[in-house]
Amino acid sequence: MRGTSDLPTLLATLAPVVSPQVYVFLSRPLAIYGDGAELDPIATFSEKEGLTLIVPKERADTAGEIYDGEYALISLSVHSDLQAVGLTAAIAAALSERGISANIVAAFYHDHLFVPLSRVDDAVTALSQLAADNQP
């Protein structure tokens, strides 16, 4: 089932939800997909420099992993089409106006934003305002 691709509809129905879990990004040089499974990663990405893992902070701490920064996960409840145009740009613009960095992951059903933990409330406010500004 395809998601919504109409940008005004997407923006009006973002419905951001914050995960109670705190996440960190790890990099494992020379690792391959599947390595680090014991850390219960929510996402991985294979790069030429190694494997990037996004894992729960508590799992990284327990394993003695070194990381730089703690991130909140904001999931957008709207089911966006993978070919929708402009959603990422609109979100990035709304957050950048407030000086909030975001690492955005588009999954099959939803988009997920990793924002600095210290800025999660500001990010939710920005996203909620973006949705309110796009109500019909």
From TrEMBL:
SUPFAM superfamilies: ACT-like. InterPro entries: ACT-like_dom_sf, CASTOR_ACT_dom, DUF2241. Pfam families: ACT_3, ACT_7. Residues 73-128 form the CASTOR ACT domain. Residues 3-68 form the DUF2241 domain. This is ACT domain protein. It comes from Novipirellula galeiformis. The lineage of its organism: Bacteria, Pseudomonadati, Planctomycetota, Planctomycetia, Pirellulales.
